[in-house]
Amino acid sequence: MPNRDQAFTDPIGLKVTKEQFQVLKDLAARDTKPLAVWCRDTLLALASGRGPSPFELAVMAELTATQAILIDMLCAVGRDGKITTQKAQEIVDRAHNAKFKEATQLLQYAYSRAAKSRLDAAASGEQTRKEERHE
Description:
It contains four helices and no strands. It is mostly helical.
């Protein structure tokens, strides 16, 4: 984000339909940003490949590990009727070793699904507006 003394000097122009313009305007309003700021922020975030924040990654990693531990322990108890301390430790170690990789994959999936949902919702709103105009 530029400081107050830094000016935006290089324009990027593109043309969109009236419906697309309204969708973008609505998305910007939802984020309480002016359209130009929202477009710039969104484009730069997309271009930079912004990943999850350290906090998001840490929370997701712990949730992923906890889920894996719980499932594996329940399966072990269900299969064997009991679980040894050694087996429990192996399960915990395996979950902790995989947690950041799995958390990153889940967050990437969540980001892509969220983006698709926003686009689908925007397109649905655009379709609804078109239908309303034709009635």
